[in-house]
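User: What would this chain look like folded?
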Amino acid sequence: MRPILAVLALALAAFGQTMPKRIPPDEATKHLIKQFPAFYPSSAQTGRIQGIVVLEISIDESGRASVRRLVSGHPMLAPAAIDSVNQWKYQPFEVDGKPTTVVTFVTVSFGGTSRQETDAAAHIELMLVDNFWTAEESAQAALAKGDHSAAEHELNRAQEVLTSFSNGRVYQAERWQWMISMGRLAMARQKYDEAEQYYKKA
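Assistant: Here's the prediction, encoded as structure tokens.
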């Protein structure tokens, strides 16, 4: 095996093992205790900029939310959404009876003609992102067990979700993760040239 591929594969495997438990957005919402309202920036209002900001967050053992990354959303709206969500409070999540840190996705809406339409659009986007990561993590679990067929199936499912992101947004983290996972699968099958191509694209 090429030395660079071996080093990259080990680094990526270690990165994947540090990921906290992922909670579906609908489940996380049931634990939400305090939702601090987002301040609608005056510059965004003047420019009639509205829309949905999607954030990936972690919820620590005490239930405090902190934003891990911006998934999508207008740059003029994102800072206000992040400031708001960093003040949210949840009932702590437990694994085996002990409080634990979890990861999930949330949306913050700005403007919009109808609250119902905005909520529906936000829910669809949340489900798409969550479906991608659910498939991605299932693929990682299958790879860890050496089940290459199951990993390929889950990565194909993740790719289908990626192609359904037809709103013009890039979703760079998701696309990067999918290519890295495809590279890991190719490595596991000893298809080193194919793995190298995925890693280069990533």
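The first helix runs from residue 3 to 17. If you want, I can go into more detail on any region.
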